[in-house]
């Protein structure tokens, strides 16, 4: 770990003011950043501690939604009675992530910004365009079982590892940001960037942009499912995950909001998939068609080829469960 | 007054006296808590890194990022970094951990980086953070030295076929071709890590007389002492190793590891104590792993399901110049009878981190693959797999005709089946929602070993002290040695103090190969017998007429306090066990049977183990609680071997890719169902005078196959490459769709 300056911010304005260079990072729970600093994968010269800021609450908004403070822990968010009632897919996604100890520490803002778990990103002995732009991508021809099949580029095939963000994407969440020019909101769908030839740039945030909250619209209703497929029963990142909000009326799908984890560099959502489902009667053939659309551009890199059939099977199972006539 | 007498046993013949059965204290075999348990759970047990001698500096290892000849480094620049005291680039640094019981230096650095991840330098600084940062800034120049193979199965790999390790008996090919039923399959197991909870750590300190004391985390101290002495080029008398508490070993701490050598060399240069702790990622790379295996298993049987041919040909990997190779077929030689036999052993010399002994080397992977193959043959023959095994219980060692010291295979199979409620059905019969449900079973077997051990027992009127350099690697040595002494000398366990983990004490067996409990307990037993005889002589009775209980000597209806008999005296005895012909004239082994029920998702191929029942016969149980814990651990290891654990090696340079506990998947609590463990208590007189045998490793030797066989029974998918991760199962499911 490199030596660094440490500033504890007293209010958001100070936090934003103290940031502002590539060298500076905010630190919240530290569950990701500290690991990366110990390995010197990230080596900020200055840390701005935001844990004393007043960003810890969950409030109801005028439109019936929720405003989740950036410092709300994953545990508290998952346990919130309003979340469990109105946005259960979010609660389930959170509980499917990490471990109890980590969730107690991990924050909403930090979770959105956690870095990829690509093995080579963590290994300074290996080329990695995300860690060291221009050095190459060791994963493409290496061990890539856990990496992405959608939205990749020749420069990077990493996934975004979050479960929480997948549910939030399905729920049309927006990110509230405080920056040098004041406050703004960005839809989660526009928050992350594809790697292209700059995989080191992962979001639309500028260095002094502080996430202050995540905004959820009014409850989406429908059946909500989070299904996470992984290598052991708990405490493993998703190989594939599906967050689904589905409603069926008169035998026809009337609402379909679907986001996927483990597939791409961001929580993945595909409007064409949803358009194909809405207005149609649920059937195995329909679900297959939805998978065709979702996976049309999918590309495996050897070790992760299995994610293509796995996604197809998992999506069909989730859609079947979500559209079954309730007993 | 402090006369120490010695009782020596060369173990050549069975001991039918079973003296332990005549003792009266009643503590042996109970589920007594570990005496050091309260220290451990309250953080007062000091593990290797948990002391800080005055003036201590911190070292951090530097890793080779490529393979080749070491030609230079930026040591000078690193030396100038804040806090840096020394950059160690000594040629005596070791390439990888020593193999178990080597007793001499492993391969040293020799100006070479043999594998990616090899420690090539150590940076020592005032603080841990400074050392780590400087080590990360250190660049070692490595010139490529040609092309290498990284995969045992690649065409470039050099393969050795040591003559001594091949076996042909009878007409194997003839038996195969003329068989009523046969199978011929390749099975593969993955490269695996011990992943003990406590990372390796050493603190070295030299005194003015050129003697070094090392606080480390090791399993076999008397060997480790010689290893360190040999590496440093000093006399063994100048080396003292302290390992009072060890946070898990599983083979990874059998041999001296690079951090100990780096600490000792740096401390010598600097003239102050140096601590080197391995980062978790360094533990994975520099400590020996379990080799991946490819096992071709060919089996044939007659129409009645009697095995007629057994073929087991194995390919394992290892670094050049390393003597150990995973003894895959160790159990195959005697587990089942068949007149025609073929064993092949091949070692591919490749550039992956060194392989070595990991819990139950040989049988863990060998029996596991073999028991899958047996399941396949039973199926081909249309015979219930339990029944199939019962028809093939060997009466004597099938290769050399020696008798078994005890034969409990059939009993464990039958008892296990009863406890589990075994009922075999065809595959794909039971379904709950998307989950296929199935059951599977397997036999377990592991060789039983004893090695030389010494222990001192000191008796006073108030209690007993047991002393030796035995280690407790979490297994319960403190508990069982306390119990043996308490039982033999008639004191409550609270009046017995057991002092371990110090090479200044008599050299015990150490912990490894499941030989620790039986070997060192025997040494303690011998010392106690010596003291009993001295007591009997003093009283004037025969040892067999003497009852010792609650601090009293009882004989001829008279009862005398030991404190009266001994007064202020301290009686000392040294027990010395030397293995002898008893280990050679018969085949000693432990046996078991494991049954499992699993659910397999028809969607994703995920497997959930729902229940697992193990029945084991492994000699006299010295402590029910620690014995049961060993079996729980072994069964969970089996589960990991079957379902989750695999070290991934980069195809281009062999380096370990997933070298942390987030991506090397050990089973977590939710993966482990309620585990049933049942012991068939036996008295194997060939084992030792205690009739105690190895326990720790038995449960891993086959239990994974019960899971794999259950997967097949559940969903009809036969997985032959372990672990059976969901993608491998899903591929098979897709074929059924
Ligand atoms: C072993 C392990 C297993 C895990 N498993 C899972 C899993 O299965 N699923 C899953 O979803 N996650 C998993 N995680 C990841 C975990 O959820 C994240 O580490 C955690 O959510 C990060 O939150 P934090 O508050 O600790 O972030 P930090 O580590 O403090 O910060 C992470 C990043 O976010 C930035 N940041 C933090 N807060 C703000 C803010 N308000 N504004 C701007 N920038 C900010 C920091 O600068 C930093 O770059 C796992 C982590 C570990 C270590
Ligand atoms: S996939 Fe991305 S993160 Fe992984 S090595 Fe390639 S560039 Fe780096």
Automatic annotation (TrEMBL), chain A:
For this protein, the record's InterPro entries field holds:
CO_DH_flav_C (IPR005107), CO_DH_flav_C_dom_sf (IPR036683), Diverse_Substr_Oxidored (IPR051312), FAD-bd_PCMH (IPR016166), FAD-bd_PCMH-like_sf (IPR036318), FAD-bd_PCMH_sub1 (IPR016167), FAD-bd_PCMH_sub2 (IPR016169), Mopterin_DH_FAD-bd (IPR002346)
Task: Tell whether NADP is among the UniProt keywords.
Answer: no
Q: Which GO terms describe its molecular function?
A: FAD binding; oxidoreductase activity
Sequence intervals crossing the membrane: none
A Pfam family cross-referenced in the UniProt record is: CO_deh_flav_C
Q: Domain of life of the organism in this record?
A: Bacteria
Q: Where is the FAD-binding PCMH-type domain?
A: 1-221
Q: Does the keyword Oxidoreductase apply?
A: no
Its keywords, alphabetically, are: FAD, Flavoprotein
What is the name listed in the Swiss-Prot or TrEMBL entry for this protein? Answer: Periplasmic aromatic aldehyde oxidoreductase, FAD binding subunit YagS
The species is: Limimaricola cinnabarinus LL-001
Task: Provide the organism lineage as a comma list.
Answer: Bacteria, Pseudomonadati, Pseudomonadota, Alphaproteobacteria, Rhodobacterales
UniProtKB/TrEMBL annotation, chain B:
Cite the InterPro entries for this sequence: Ald_Oxase/Xan_DH_a/b (IPR000674), Ald_Oxase/Xan_DH_a/b_sf (IPR036856), Ald_Oxase/xanthine_DH-like (IPR016208), AldOxase/xan_DH_MoCoBD1 (IPR008274), AldOxase/xan_DH_MoCoBD2 (IPR046867), AldOxase/xan_DH_Mopterin-bd_sf (IPR037165)
Q: Sorted alphabetically, which SUPFAM superfamilies does this protein's record hold?
A: CO dehydrogenase molybdoprotein N-domain-like, Molybdenum cofactor-binding domain
Q: List the coiled-coil residues.
A: none
Q: Where is this region: Disordered?
A: 1-20
Domain Aldehyde oxidase/xanthine dehydrogenase a/b hammerhead, first and last residues per copy: 42-146
What does the record give under GO molecular function? iron ion binding; oxidoreductase activity
- According to UniProt, the name of this protein is Periplasmic aromatic aldehyde oxidoreductase, molybdenum binding subunit YagR
Annotated source species: Limimaricola cinnabarinus LL-001
